[in-house]
Structure formats: C-alpha cells, structure tokens
Design goal:
alpha/beta, two-stranded antiparallel sheet, Rossmann fold, binds S-adenosyl-L-homocysteine, 9 strands, 219 residues
Length: 219
C-alpha cells in the first residue's frame, strides 16, 4: 500500500467518495485494499470540469478523443480480480486514458507502468497524477499491443481496452505466476483473467463489460 504518497486532495469530495465506496461494497467488491484505494483517489480531477458533478456516479464518462473514463465498479472489479488477494507487484496498465485507473494502481503498488496511444491524453494523465502526488507511476506514449519490453516481466497486467484475444506480446511479458486481466471480445465482452502457471496459460471468465477497442499504433 502506497497511500502516503497521495497529496493535494481537498477534503470536500471525501464524503462523496465514501458513499461511492459503500456502493462498491454493496455491489460485491470485498477486497479492503481495493476499496481503500477507490476511496482515496479523487475521481473529479480526472474529469472535464463540465462533468465534475457526476464524478462519483458509478458510470463511465467521456474523456475526449472518443475515449471514456471507466466506470468505478468496473475499475474496482477488474483490479480485485487482478490482485487476487495477493499483491499487484510490478504492474502494467494498457490504455491509461487520463490516468484514473493508473492512480488506483499507484496506491496499491510501488511499481506501476502505464501506456497510452493518444499523446494528448497521456499528457493529461501526467498532469493529473502529478497533481495528486503519484509521481512514481511511469507513463509512456506507446502501442500497448507491444507491451513494455524495457520494464518486463510484470507480475500483473491490466488492459482498459477490449480485444478479441490477449495480445501475444503481453502474455510473453507476464512473469511466472503472473496475471493479466482484460475486457475480452468485440461487440460482446467479458472480463477475462489469464494466469501464467507452470502448466501454461489458464483463462477464467467473469462479468460482461463494455470497453472501447484496443487499437493498433499511436496517434
Ligand atoms: N484507464 C482509463 C480508461 C481509458 S479508456 C481510465 O482509468 O479511465 C481506454 C484507453 O485505451 C483509451 O484512452 C485508448 O486511447 C487506449 N488505448 C486503446 N488502444 C490502445 C493501445 N493499443 N495502446 C495503448 N492505449 C490504447
């Protein structure tokens, strides 16, 4: 847990965040570290000022560039599956957007890497994470299909964009015992967990979700 690093957060949204955490608990999120991280990170700073009054609603919101900030429940659910009651360890996020999920990961782990293919979004993520004092998160403008070879292997990898199958390069960058969580599918998607075991990759499927597609290249 790395919550001591969080700074610059006003208390004004604390009560609203506590209500959001209670809602997440009621929806079935039970990992106390995940709930704690969701309660610490101020979602409103990641959102356009015009939409800030909806920052703690359990809904996805537009980010610009045709992208969305993920729904709090889905962020919590995917990270709960990813952490699996253990530690995140060295973690990689594909599709940082404006940095909200990266911030949650940053509370839970000292080693967080995140890539984003749209340069202006990455710039916003950088500013947002700096504003709340999460300076240990390493961000890169890159195509997440390729993973992040220079920092591999990873104990955990999480994708915030959907694909029909897990990108091979990402599976190859999982450490032994490592776990990857992603929205799997195109029109219909489910949360998929892939674990790298001694006997090979083992997949488990969870709830239905709706994510933007994992696209090739950078822009
Ligand atoms: N993690 C964000 C969600 C952003 S939406 C949050 O916390 O709200 C998903 C993001 O994935 C978009 O910003 C999109 O540009 C990005 N994305 C899609 N394909 C990608 C790729 N191949 N590499 C890196 N980022 C990608």
């Amino acid at each position: 847990m790395n919550s001591a690093a969080l700074t610059g957060i006003g208390m004004t949204s604390q009560r609203t965040r506590s209500r959001m955490v209670e809602r997440l608990r009621a929806l079935g999120i039970s990992d106390s570290r995940v709930l704690h991280a969701m309660g610490l990170v101020p979602r409103h700073i990641f959102i356009e000022p015009a939409l800030a009054n909806r920052a703690y609603d359990d809904t996805a919101l537009p980010l610009g560039f045709g992208q969305t900030i993920s729904q709090p429940f889905v962020v919590a659910r995917m990270i709960e599956i990813l952490i699996a009651g253990r530690e995140l360890g060295k973690t990689l996020e594909i599709g940082a957007g404006c940095g909200y999920q990266a911030a949650i990961l940053g509370v839970l782990s000292k080693q967080v890497f995140a890539v984003e293919r749209i340069a202006p979004l990455l710039t916003r993520a950088r500013q947002n994470l700096k504003q709340i004092g999460l300076s240990h998160i390493r961000l890169k403008h890159a195509d997440g299909n390729l993973g992040l070879a220079e920092a591999a292997p990873f104990d955990t990898i999480i994708l915030a964009a959907a694909a029909a199958s897990a990108p091979q390069k990402l599976l190859a960058q999982l450490a032994p015992g490592g776990r990857l969580v992603m929205p799997l599918g195109t029109a219909e998607q489910v949360i998929s967990l892939v674990e790298r075991t001694d006997g090979g990759f083992v997949e488990t499927r969870f709830d239905a979700v709706r994510f933007v597609p994992l696209l090739p290249g950078v822009e």
